């Protein structure tokens, strides 16, 4: 936020003082770029850093504060880049370190910050450490993973989150632990060499001007020292992990890692850490963002909430309460590269789109930071990816029972030409097939359409920037039947209500205030009230 102040003409000195006292990340809108799918500069069908760099003006025009890039490192390619072979390099498919530096510099010129993804729970099986450990069980690198001697049965009942046992065998019969794919061996964080190497990695990128890291599987890293059986099984339908998985996640020692990483970031002004903490209990999630740990941890509650006032109100209240207790902002998430696209989750088609539009107004009104997943601002649905084109290990390891995450990772449609502008015209096939009708969602089309999802996002982001009640106020949540209201009060005393109708009939909201923004043109204003059709939301400035 601080970097954008110069462009806000009406800011008073007091506001400047208040804003600069509040670090940028507390209220930032961070745009998540799935690098492989964002923009391909050289026509190999794979998004890359130069492609992203060329699209930075779009992100600045949209009005976000920062860009978080999914892993850009050399990778074994088994899990969309989350199996890393070299933490201090760039995968040649994406460019090189100088491209990353150029990206950071261009972003800065536009008032944007760059946040990288770091993956400390596991490496690739092609990482030199794991390769050394395979070749020689007694080498120092072997102690950096979890190996167990050959035996009939695996050491315990732990399961991979991608399906099947969490233990696989080496060619010489030993077991090794992988809580994700077999190509992602888990690191042993009790070996000090692991911690030391990650500290080098953080500094390597911080020295290149990045503004921080999204920390993958931040609730992992340490495991039960006795490798005891987990008491129960994980189900992806839960909000996150809980006591049933007590031996694999959320070990107390992990908090010391975040204290150490925080102290490193403190040496680099205005940098931050945001953790992926998939625990069911919001209070446990918030503990990862105590004042001396990570600056933020994602609130995934709304990502798994069905479209109902009870679920959304509970998701918002429980997060405001939990993060409020530790003094951290809530980091709201409605979509990412691991979940079905919002439009589809909320029912698909016109209904799903209307709900996604309304949900955007809801999260962008709430105090805290908001993480937007590339393509959600276009209202992209989950794409149908044919099985033969799929890449996600979840699909393969579940024997096809789980459809996997490819459908939310399909390349961005930029224009209405063949190939929708993802790659230079007339070049290679995109790495995942783009549905034939995606020109309808193209950026070029939506920028010209005053009623598009993109226009709605852009207006919402501009209003959020301009009104202290939005994104940085105090919020209270109430429900009346199918109507959810968030009342946001700014530091200047201004009040904006975000009212969402989650029911099937029109809702009348009493108000003489101004309609700042409506999620749909079907919202009607009369002198003393506003009529909200089903699945719409409105921002009301009450005078
Ligand atoms: C995180 C990532 C996901 C990845 C997993 C293993 O959950 O968001 O994409 O598969 O970690 O690294
Ligand atoms: Ca490329």
UniProtKB/TrEMBL annotation:
Gene3D superfamilies: Glycosidases (3.20.20.80), Oligo-1,6-glucosidase, Domain 2 (3.90.400.10). Signal peptide: none annotated. InterPro entries: DUF3459 (IPR022567), GH (IPR017853), GH13_cat_dom (IPR006047), O16G_dom_2 (IPR045857). Residues 32-409 form the Glycosyl hydrolase family 13 catalytic domain. GO terms for biological process: oligosaccharide catabolic process. GO terms for molecular function: alpha-amylase activity. Belongs to the glycosyl hydrolase 13 family. PANTHER family: ALPHA-AMYLASE FAMILY MEMBER, NEUTRAL AND BASIC AMINO ACID TRANSPORT PROTEIN RBAT. This is Alpha-glucosidase. It comes from Blastococcus xanthinilyticus.
